[in-house]
Amino acid sequence: MELKISSRSQDDCAVVTVLGEIDLYTAPQLHSELGAALDDGARRLLVDMSRVEFCDSTGLSVLLSAMKRVRASGGELELVAPKPAVRKILVVTGLIDVFTVRDSTDALPLAAGTGAGTT
Q1: Contact yes or no for 14/40 (Cβ under 8 A)
Q2: Is the Cβ–Cβ distance between 113 and 44 less than 8 Å?
Q3: Any idea where the domains of the chain sit in the sequence?
Q4: Tens of pLDDT, residues 45-71
Q5: Are 102 and 70 a contacting pair, CB within 8 Å?
């Protein structure tokens, strides 16, 4: 399955929306997109996982790498609304306790935590 990624940012917050399956073949695309968001100065990285059907160990590695990078600069990475299949992988691997996981896409407004309003 193809992976589609879109991103938007405001100030130091970036939302990366992922659609499809994250696996050995698509993980480099996600790595590139997350890296670009961090290169652009994102210190709060919200990864919308609400439309991700599958994520293998390669995908988890990409997410861990991005989390380490953003935390090294004093920021945070949050996984938003992972589907049950992805959440199960996070639970089984113990990564549910490593990542900040939000249950709802309500966590996605770019102004969250910045003091700015959006319309």
Answers
A1: yes
A2: yes
A3: 4-107
A4: 999 999 999 999 999 999 999 999 999
A5: no
Q: Which residue has the tokens 């992988």?
A: 89
* pTM, 2 dp: 0.87
For residue range 72-102, list pLDDT tens digits in order: 999 999 999 999 999 999 999 999 999 999 9
Amino acid at 62: V
**Contact of 77 with 68, CB cutoff 8 Å:** no
- Candidates 90, 109, 97, 88; CA nearest to 15 is 109
Residues 44 and 7 sit within 8 Å (Cβ to Cβ)? no
Fold of 4-107: Transcription Regulator spoIIAA (3.30.750)
